[in-house]
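Pipeline run #58 for the internal structure catalog. This entry was flagged by the ingest filter as a single-chain record with no existing model, so it goes straight to prediction. Upstream metadata was stripped on purpose; only the residue string is passed forward. Reviewer on rotation: M.T. Logging verbosity set to normal.
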Amino acid sequence: MTDPRRELPSIDSLIARLSPRFAAHPRALVVRAAREAVEAARANGGTPPAEGWDAAVSAAVRRLAVPSLTPVINATGVVLHTNLGRAPLAAAAIEALTRVAAGYTALEYDLVGGTRGSRHAHCRDLLVELTGAADAMVVNNAAGAVLLALSALGGGGSTGGSRGGEAIVSRGELVEIGGSFRIPDIMARSGAKLVEVGTTNRTHPNDYERALTPDTRLLLKVHRSNFQVTGFTTDVAVVELAELAHRRKLACVYDLGSGLMLNLSAWGLSGEPTVQEGVAAGADVVLFSGDKLLGGPQAGILVGTQQAIAACRADPLARAVRADKLTLAALEATLALYRDRDTAIREIPVLRMLTENMESIRVRAERLGGQLIEGDSEVGGGSFPGAKLRTWLAGFPDESLAERLRRNDPPIIARVAGSRVLLDARTILPGQVETVVAALAAG
């Protein structure tokens, strides 16, 4: 018997037959779509598509033409949702990013002297002004900032010295920061040798003292921002660790994580240290993310002493983890908003969502329809672990609704609880409400 798969059309013959229909599309796109359609038929034993070749290739073209990175509406109630891109940018940051992206920029050019400049100059003055640190620099993400600081201050990278200087850290702070990236792994890559002290729940100053050797280069403090340890616990405050480090002529590096610049205890969010507090505690380098509580683009930010930041700038890894012009533009515009507290809370979406009152959230939830339910939102992004924010949700007793909303344009990502689909109005931006209402009506 003849194998039906031998009767399938070749890609060239299929495209030749369909070419007038797809003349508006790039040939490479049509070729890929035709190949997918033929391969699907081959996997089905050689059976041609039931809807016909034209329809099968058309469907593949439509699917392949859609960008994989697409905007979505976050109705989950998780403000800093890592899977959904964490912090949405402020309007000022979007404007700055667009302005810089449209043409050439003075990224590494000194406009005064007419000579080559440094991208590390961008954002530096604002970070110094806002945090009280003596110096600052920006890299591509927080993991890169950790890697750079450990390499420059613990691994001998900036001085050309021998690699493998010791970095001491509490066992209770050897965290996994997401995506299976772990502090010990990053330390190993930096060239610094990890020395663990204390226990999971209790670490004392003399644990660090006993671990000191002639090879010790730094003491590392990692803020446990994405989990809580409660009960019989003790750890060493940053100020104590910095004092110990400086008595022994060592560096103290504080991985703060979330980048909180404003005290949010008035809104029930407490326990997360601010960047300013980390700097005031005396750490040589305080490092944090740009796209978490700071509310800016993905970036790793290092602030600290002039000597420590200079060592980071001089380290060979600094080029490998440097930030691009779009990141620097969006971050600079975000930081500028922090010059006025009320402006920052009003204009930076993350801060606005975290501080929004229940009444305005309820107005949006009621507009969505469904059953009005009082519930909780989460901060997310490994920030304020365990904290809950009271919110209003619109509930719908239809499990299949979540899938239909994901197929919407733009996709709407909901929360599913049992057989109910819940839409948390806190993270649905005011300008997105009518889009969600229309999607629900069409569902």
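catalog note: The first strand starts at residue 73 and ends at 74.
catalog note: The longest helix spans residues 27-43.
status: ready for reviewer M.T.
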